[in-house]
Amino acid sequence: MDISKLIPQRREVVVQLPSRGLPYGDLLPDGKITIHPWTTEEQLEFLQEGSNPVISLNSMMDRIVKRNTIFPEDFQYTQLLSGDRLFLLISQRAESIGDEYFVRSITCEGCGVIHTEIKVDVLDPNYITVLSEETYKKDGSDVTLPISGYVFQLKYQTLADIQSVANLVKGKPIPKEEKEKVTLLYAKAVRIKAINGEPVVPSDTIKLPELIRALDYKDNMVLDKALLAIDCGIDRKRPLDCACGTDMKYMIPFDSEFFRPKALV
Ligand SMILES: [Zn+2]
Q1: To which H or E segment does residue 43 belong?
Q2: Ion ligand 1 contact residues with beta carbon within 5 A
Q3: Which helix (H) or strand (E) element contains residue 166?
Q4: Which of 80, 227, 204, 235 has the alpha carbon at shortest distance from 154?
Q5: Which domains are seen in the chain, by residue range?
Q6: pLDDT tens sequence for the chain (265 residues)
Q7: What is the pTM of this model?
Q8: 249 Cα–ligand 1 center, Å
């Protein structure tokens, strides 16, 4: 028997990216791109991940998304918007396993009741934000901070930005308890393209957390809102309405249930 002749062709599915391809010039017209549903290869990878906490979610997402997406030859992967990457990962999951996902358990912040087996539609269109010719801003979007009056020009978050944040944090001697805070500050810093019309250069980005830390609370809230407003992709935060009256939000966890649901094993 010739096993090599039995090896199946990979399935192909065309999906449309939330960015609609607008940030990538002519490389992905209308944001249409071909993905492959997962194979046994991926299942084996998830098994391995489970036993290796050192491999970060970020690098696992990159590996899976890269292996199962057909990017045009000239496409620079690092220019992919992080929202598009999340959409690709979730679309691949939906094509491979289904769009239904049962969140194992979420504890209500109000009364402590544990909600289990919460059904989630991972591709629920209500949680997908898309860009359009009208909403896409090539040069970023301006926001004026109400207290300081500073005008920040903000850019979309690419995978290169996520990498820059990791590099900036790595290069600094930061106490463990400060690490999360510093990461959050840099995540904002790398998305600021200009301040009051002056372009932000890499040596400015390093110092930006100092400025952001000192911003008035009101300014920071407006900044956060503006950053969120230009993001496209899938919102992983979903609402939970508890009988006690608490309305809370939780993040869809990327756990084994997401990658290897019990129902299928
Ligand atoms: Zn409750």
Answers
A1: helix 40-50
A2: 108, 110-111, 113, 242, 244, 246
A3: helix 159-170
A4: 227
A5: 9-129+233-264 (no CATH), 141-229 (3.30.2220)
A6: 999 999 999 999 999 999 999 999 999 999 999 999 999 888 777 776 655 555 577 888 898 999 999 999 999 999 999 999 999 999 999 999 888 888 889 999 999 999 999 999 999 999 999 999 888 988 888 999 999 999 999 999 999 999 999 888 887 788 888 888 999 999 999 999 999 999 999 999 999 999 999 999 999 999 999 998 888 999 989 999 999 999 999 988 887 777 777 665 5
A7: 0.89
A8: 12
